[in-house]
Amino acid sequence: MRKDIHPEYREVVFQDTSSDYSFITRSTMNSEETIKWEDGKTYPVVKVEVSSASHPFYTGKKLFVDTAGRVEKFNKRYVNKK
Question: Keywords assigned by UniProt (predicted)?
Fold first, then answer.
């Protein structure tokens, strides 16, 4: 393998902003923010809007609130007007 061409693969904390759920995994994502984890170490934190703790498929909730209003915007634009 060639040196210095691969991104750094390290432990990163992903934090779900909608459900206040956090988990640690390995990733190449970069972040300026850091968080002190339960083990006392400091890790970079990446904030996400949807994770397994808030996604309707995993939670069993039928209703999914679209923060950007994309569904309403689509329906408004392409609804059949009679």
Answer: Ribonucleoprotein, Ribosomal protein
